[in-house]
Amino acid sequence: MEILIRVSQFLLSLSILVVLHELGHFVFAKIFKARVEKFYMFFNPGFSLFKYKKGETEYGIGWIPLGGYVKISGMIDESMDKEQLALPPEPYEFRSKPAYQRLLIMVGGVLVNFILAFVIYISVLFAWGDAYLPAENVKYGYVCDSLAQSIGLQNGDKILELDHQKQVKYSDILTNILLNSPQSMQVEREGEMIDIAIPSTFVKDLLAKSSKGFSMSPVIQPRLPLQPFVISGFSKESMAKEAGVKKGDEVLLVNGKDFEFFDEYLAYLQTLKGQTVMLTVKRDGEVHEISSKLDEEAKLGVSIKPYNHFEFAAIEYSFLEAIPAGINKGVDKLQSYLKQFKLIFSSETKGYKSIGGFGTIASIFPGVWDWHAFWNLTAFLSIILAIMNILPIPALDGGHVMFLLYEIITRRKPGDKFMEYAQIGGMIILFGLLIFANANDIMKAFN
């Protein structure tokens, strides 16, 4: 069910983005009286799931959810319709329009994606505000995995600064390490401030970790106290439930040991895979001893009643306040994504190994339907779609823009044969990238 919810959110988000992107091309084409022959969500080689014709345009839904398209008369695009181009140009064709009109038609989709992202961020801030966990409020410090510990971090450390710059949000710490390459972090450990050097290989190691699977444990995450340890439910094949543990029981001791933090409890259980443990539980004011076996993953098969151990910061916005705040958030996300290109093309970080396809994109959506998360992710994907489409690769909008700018500057129009070969070359590049990204996803699935 969780996978189905993720995929459903991904497909809905993709559908919204594709339709509005193509609508940008469509609207500018209509403004300049260029004929639009087809308007499709998703691609339809061979057949369409749905189609109808109104006026000169066929509207439809294809069966391959890799994007969408509008087919404009007299334009060399993915349809590779060479028969039409062999005829004399008609006034309603794309190739007959002035260069500036063709330029606006081509950037229409990207323009809509950027505007859409800003509108969504404005709406989300107005509807939900902005809630986040301040870095200084992670009062129990962090649980650090082996990668974090390899640079000197310890469980319980509180990361407060990077290069002596205060970190406002917990969620920004790893992002800032990835994108801004700080040299050190300032950490509070047992009441004392210490400096920890960040090695130049740490970003490479972070990216390598992210390339190994869809669901990886975070490098750092807020440390959670274990007490009170109250049972709120059981897994399908719970060893503890079979042993007699009941919902509402409070676990006081495991093998006579009490644990202050959840990570300490989990680490202890990992040393006892498949063995039997003695649970001391309180039920209705009475203390009971219950013997329960652990499964092969060292789990009891219980869920714990959640408690809010942290104080979150919340900022609410009026509609007028949300407008500049939403635009600023969109610009920040845009700048952040552009910085990631440095990592992808860097021979040191080898960020290209972490590039993901449709599986990666679907996996970032939550396993429960959350409209707040859905719209935030849709806004960010809208920015990604805009940037990817404006890249100067033939077959993308950016490729057409590149040739149109050449025409405007030199007053020389590239030949139809050149454009045809450029389109074919661009499509080969795009399919190669698509195969590479989704091959990375397959490797993640195996990992």
TrEMBL record:
Membrane topology classification: Multi-pass membrane protein
One Pfam match: PDZ_6
Cofactor field: Zn(2+)
InterPro entries referenced in this protein's UniProt entry, alphabetically: PDZ, PDZ_6, PDZ_sf, Pept_M50_Zn, Peptidase_M50
EC number(s) on file: 3.4.24.-
SMART domains tied to this protein: PDZ (SM00228)
Molecular function in Gene Ontology: metal ion binding; metalloendopeptidase activity
Record key words, sorted: Hydrolase, Membrane, Metal-binding, Metalloprotease, Protease, Transmembrane, Transmembrane helix, Zinc
Transmembrane segment boundaries: 103-129, 351-369, 381-406, 418-437
Record's keyword annotation contains Transmembrane: yes
GO biological process annotation, one example: proteolysis
GO cellular component: membrane
Domain PDZ: start-end pairs: 210-285
Cited CDD domains: S2P-M50_PDZ_RseP-like
Compartments in which it is found: Membrane
Family (UniProt): Belongs to the peptidase M50B family.
PANTHER family per record: MEMBRANE METALLOPROTEASE ARASP2, CHLOROPLASTIC-RELATED, REGULATOR OF SIGMA-E PROTEASE RSEP
Protein name: Zinc metalloprotease
